[in-house]
Specification:
It is found in: Membrane. With about 625 residues, this protein is an all-alpha fold. The chain has 24 helices and three strands.
C-alpha cells in the first residue's frame, strides 16, 4: 500500500489515497491497468505485463534481502563516503527484462555514471560552432555584436534547460523508454500530433547535425593535407561514430567523457591565452586591451549604420550564433533513461548548465572579440576562400597575429576532436529520438528493437544511412555545405525549443491541478515566467530568421530555402498527423487528462532506495569530486 496524492479531476487538491496493487493474474489492458474510483480513493491496479512499470519495485522478501545486502556492501565498500554507482547500475541490470529469461523485450541499460552525465552537460554538444563558426559572426556583426548576441542566447536557453530538467527529473523513465526526449514530453503533456511532429523534427535535425559535424571534420583535416579525398575522411569519421553508437551506452559515455574533457581543456586554455594577450603577454608584447572595440569598431554595421545598424548586428549575431547552442539542453535530458541515480544526476547537470553558458560561450566570445578585429585580412580571406578548421578559427588567427607559431596545429587537433565528439553525441540523440517514436507508435515498430546490450541497433543503422548526407560535401565546398546544414538545423532546434517550452507550461498546469508541486524533486527560479520569455523570443527569431534575404541585394534562393524550409515541413507533419488520426477537434490535452502520475511511485521508491545507499563524502578529496562530478 503506497499513499500518494490523487489524480482525480473532482478532488484536485485534497489529500487522498492511491492504492497500488499488482495483478498477479497477469491480465491488464494495453494502457497499463484498470482504474477504480470512489469519492476519496483512486485504486490503481497495475499489471506486470503493461510496460514493466513496476520493474524497480522489490515484490518479495528475496528481493528485499538482495537490496539490504547491496546497501551493506555499499556501506562497507564506500570508505570514501560516496555512493557506489556501479551497484546502482547492477540493481537496474538485474531488474531489466531479458529475452533469454522471460521472453520480454530488452531495455536500455543505465550505464552512464555521474561523471559521464556532468561532462556531457558541460561539453557534449560543443562542436565547431564555437571554435570555428564564431568567425563568420565576428566578421558580420563585430565584436560587440558577437558578445552581446551570445549573452542574449544564453539568457534564452537557460530557462529551457531548467524546464526540461524539471520535467525529466520528475519522471525520468525506467529504461523501457527514452522519457527525457522532448518529443516524449510533448506527447505526454501536450498532444500526440505535436509530439509526432516534434520527434521527426528532432530526428531530422540530429542527422543533419551529424552530417554537418562530419563535413566540418573533413575540412579540419584539410588544414594539414589535401592529398586524401574528402569522401575518405567522411567515411572514417562516420564509421567511428557508428561503431561507438553500436556499443553499449557506457562506451558512448566513456568516449564522450574524454572527448568533452579535451574540449573543455582546449577552451579553458584558449580563454587563458586570450587573457594573457589582452595584457600584452605574447611574444610581441603588444598589449591589446579593447583596442579592436574602438578600431575598427564595436559593430560591423553590415546592413546599415547608426543605432539601427547596431541592432541588426546583434540580431544577426543571435541568428548566426544560435547554431553553437543547438541541442545542448536536449542532449543532457536524453541521457536520463540511461544514467544511474537519474533524479540527482540530471538535476545536478541542469543546475551546472549555466556555468557552461557563462564560461564557454560568454567568456569565449569575449576572448575572441579582443584578440582579432572583425576586418582582419586573414579572417576575411579565410572566410572568402572557405578555409577549413583552424584556418578560419578566430582563436587561431588571433594567436598567429600575436606571433605564436606552434599552437595552431594543436588547436586544429582540438577542433577535430570537438567535431568528432559532437557528431557522436548527435548520432546518440538521433537513435534515441527514433526509439522514442517507435515506442509511442509514431514510427515503425522495428525501430524500437533493442539488443541485449541495451543498444537500439535498428535506429542506429537508420540514423547512419540518413547521416550519409555528409557526402554532399564531396561535390560542393565544405563551407557551403556546412552553412546549409547549420542553417537548417538551427531552425529545427528553434522549433524544438518552442515545443519544449509549451510542454513545460502544460506540465506545470497539470502538476498544480493534481497538487503534486511539493513532490517535484527539482525546481528552478522564475518559472513559468522565464519559460514564457524564452518561448516568445525563440518564436520571434524563428519567424524572422531570414529577414536579411528580403533586402534585394542579399536575396538568394538557397538562403531562403535554408531559412524557411523547416517550417512547412513541421506544419505538414503536425497537421497531417491530426488529419490521419482524426483528432483535429482537440488541439491539446485538457489539464484533467494530462498524466503526471504513471511511474511516479516507482521512481520515488527507487530514489529512496538510492538515498539509503548514499553516504556523505568524508575526505576533502571526496567532497571535491562530489562537487565537481
Amino acid at each position: 500500500m503506497v499513499n500518494i496524492l490523487p489524480f482525480h479531476k473532482n478532488n484536485r487538491h485534497s489529500a487522498g489515497v492511491v492504492t497500488c496493487t499488482d495483478d498477479v493474474s497477469g491480465s491488464g489492458s494495453g494502457s497499463g491497468g484498470d482504474t477504480k474510483k470512489d469519492d476519496n480513493v483512486v485504486q490503481v491496479t497495475e499489471s506486470p505485463s503493461s510496460g514493466s512499470r513496476n520493474n524497480h519495485r522489490y515484490d518479495n522478501e528475496k528481493d528485499d534481502a538482495i537490496r539490504m545486502e547491496k546497501i551493506s556492501k555499499n556501506k562497507s565498500a564506500s570508505s570514501n563516503g560516496t555512493i557506489r554507482e556501479d551497484l546502482i547500475m547492477d540493481m537496474d541490470l538485474e531488474k531489466s527484462p531479458s529475452v533469454d529469461g522471460d521472453n520480454e523485450p530488452h531495455k536500455l541499460k543505465q550505464g552512464l555514471q555521474s561523471r559521464h552525465v556532468q561532462l556531457i552537460a558541460l561539453g557534449g554538444a560543443i562542436g565547431t560552432g564555437l571554435l570555428v563558426g564564431t568567425s563568420s559572426t565576428l566578421h558580420t556583426c563585430g565584436p560587440a555584436g558577437l558578445f552581446i548576441s551570445y549573452i542574449i542566447i544564453s539568457a534564452v536557453i537557460y530557462p529551457i534547460m531548467c524546464a526540461l530538467g524539471e520535467m525529466v527529473c520528475f519522471l525520468p523513465g525506467d529504461g523501457s523508454d527514452s522519457a527525457g526526449s522532448t518529443a516524449n514530453l510533448v506527447t505526454r503533456y501536450v498532444d500526440a500530433s505535436l509530439g509526432f511532429a516534434t520527434g521527426w523534427n528532432y530526428f531530422y535535425c540530429y542527422v543533419i547535425l551529424v552530417a554537418a559535424e562530419c563535413t566540418a571534420a573533413s575540412g579540419v583535416v584539410e588544414y594539414w593535407t589535401t592529398a586524401v579525398p574528402k569522401g575518405v575522411w567522411i567515411t572514417i569519421f562516420l564509421c567511428v561514430v557508428v561503431l561507438l553508437n553500436f556499443s553499449a551506452v557506457k562506451v558512448y559515455g566513456e568516449s564522450e567523457f574524454w572527448f568533452a574533457s579535451i574540449k573543455i581543456l582546449c577552451i579553458v586554455g584558449l580563454i587563458i591565452l586570450s587573457f594573457i594577450l589582452f595584457w600584452g603577454g605574447g611574444p610581441n608584447h603588444d598589449r591589446l586591451g579593447f583596442r579592436y572595440w574602438q578600431h575598427p569598431g564595436a559593430f560591423a554595421h553590415h546592413l546599415t549604420g547608426g543605432s539601427l545598424g547596431n541592432f541588426t548586428d546583434i540580431y544577426t549575431g543571435i541568428i548566426k550564433g544560435a547554431f553553437a547552442f543547438i541541442l545542448g539542453p536536449e542532449l543532457v535530458c536524453m541521457t536520463s533513461a540511461e544514467c544511474a541515480d537519474q533524479r540527482r544526476n540530471i538535476a545536478k547537470a541542469s543546475r551546472r548548465f549555466v556555468w557552461r553558458l557563462i564560461f564557454f560561450y560568454v567568456l569565449g566570445t569575449l576572448a575572441i572579440s579582443v584578440i582579432v578585429p572583425y576586418n582582419d585580412p586573414t579572417l576575411v580571406n579565410a572566410l572568402a576562400q572557405g578555409k577549413p578548421g583552424a584556418g578560419s578559427s578566430p582563436f587561431v588567427i588571433g594567436i598567429q597575429n600575436a606571433g605564436i607559431k606552434v599552437l595552431p596545429h594543436i588547436i586544429n587537433g582540438c577542433i577535430l576532436t570537438s567535431a568528432w565528439s559532437a557528431a557522436n553525441a548527435f548520432m546518440f540523440a538521433s537513435t534515441r529520438s527514433l526509439l522514442t517514436m517507435a515506442q509511442t507508435g509514431q514510427a515503425p515498430k522495428c525501430l524500437g528493437r533493442i539488443n541485449r546490450w541495451g543498444v537500439p541497433y535498428v535506429a542506429v543503422a537508420v540514423s547512419f544511412l540518413c547521416s550519409c548526407l555528409a557526402y554532399l560535401n564531396v561535390s560542393s565546398s565544405t563551407a557551403d555545405v556546412f552553412n546549409w546544414f547549420s542553417n537548417i538545423s538551427t531552425i529545427s532546434g528553434f522549433l524544438g525549443w518552442m515545443c519544449g517550452c509549451i510542454a513545460y507550461l502544460r506540465f506545470r498546469k497539470a502538476i498544480f491541478y493534481n497538487g503534486l508541486y511539493d513532490r517535484m524533486p527539482f525546481k528552478t527560479w522564475g518559472q513559468p515566467y522565464t519559460v514564457w520569455f524564452s518561448l516568445i523570443i525563440v518564436g520571434i527569431i524563428t519567424i524572422t530568421n531570414g529577414y536579411a534575404i528580403f533586402i534585394p541585394k542579399y536575396w538568394r534562393v538557397s538562403d531562403f530555402i535554408a531559412a524557411y524550409i523547416t517550417l512547412p515541413i513541421f506544419l505538414v507533419l503536425w497537421l497531417g498527423h491530426k488529419l490521419y488520426t482524426r483528432t483535429w477537434r482537440q488541439w491539446w490535452l485538457p489539464v484533467s487528462e494530462i498524466d503526471v502520475t504513471t511511474g511516479l511511485v516507482a521512481i520515488e521508491e527507487k530514489s529512496r532506495e538510492i538515498e539509503e545507499m548514499r553516504l556523505p563524502p568524508s575526505s576533502f578529496k571526496d567532497k571535491f569530486l562530489d562537487a565537481l562530478l
